[in-house]
Amino acid sequence: EMEKQMEAIRLQMLKNQINPHFLFNTLNAIAGMAQIEDAETTERMIEALSRLFRYNLKTTASVMPLEREIAVVKDYVYLQKMRFGERIRYELDCKARQELVMVPAFTFQPLVEIAIIHGIAPKEEGGSIRIVVRQKENRLRIAIGDDGIGMTEEELQQLKNRLKTTDAGHGGIGLGNVYRRITAMYPDGDFEICSKKDAGTVIVIDIPCREETGDMT
């Protein structure tokens, strides 16, 4: 029985390995067909989704250049704007050496996704997401905010309490995962959530500023 279970696990692992590559290659094929058919919007959407797949499949490093994290967010927001239209507005204000500053991989996109799903999507009129990045001496400050539905003081406190355990609650797996990685990687870092009902939510990350010049693949 144990051998059967192990074989089932191995099979599932193989499926998990094959499926993403199959989807990625299929997307590239569809993008090529869209180009032939002169379907520009379709081609651009597929290319954006392909880049997201590539980043998820090929990124193994724990940290990545800031510019790559921002590029992933731009692709993700573009796809969401195709879904929600003008209900989603996006602004980036970055004053940092994007090509050199290193940040934890898979940090920006999950937080933006949370802002859209839990903050902006519930509002009929939609809302805005703003990312502000500042590099000052040996510190990097990242703020990802939205003007969505926000949280009451009680809801915010409950979320903060859950983040300190294994349950991320309101934000789902993405928020808890980012929080745990930030706090584990940077003992002197800070992860703060500010929110007000009907006003919006801001997540602020303050970490040591690390720069590298080597190629990250």
List descriptors.
51% helix, globular, 8 strands, single chain, 3-stranded antiparallel beta sheet, 5-stranded mixed beta sheet, 217 residues, alpha+beta, 6 helices
Itemize the secondary structure elements and their pairings.
Layout: H1 2-36, H2 40-58, E1 63-65, H3 66-84, E2 88-95, E3 101-104, H4 108-120, E4 127-136, E5 139-146, H5 153-163, H6 172-185, E6 190-196, E7 200-208, E8 210-211
Helix pairs in contact: 1-2, 2-3, 3-4
Describe the 3D structure.
The strands form 2 sheets. Strands 2-4-5-7-6 form a 5-stranded mixed beta sheet. A 3-stranded antiparallel beta sheet has the order 1-3-8. It is globular and about 45 Å long. It is an alpha+beta fold. The protein starts with a helix and ends in a 6-residue tail after the last strand. The mean pLDDT is 86. A hairpin with a 3-residue loop joins strand 6 (190-196) and strand 7 (200-208). The relative contact order is 0.11. Helix content is 51%, strand content 24%.
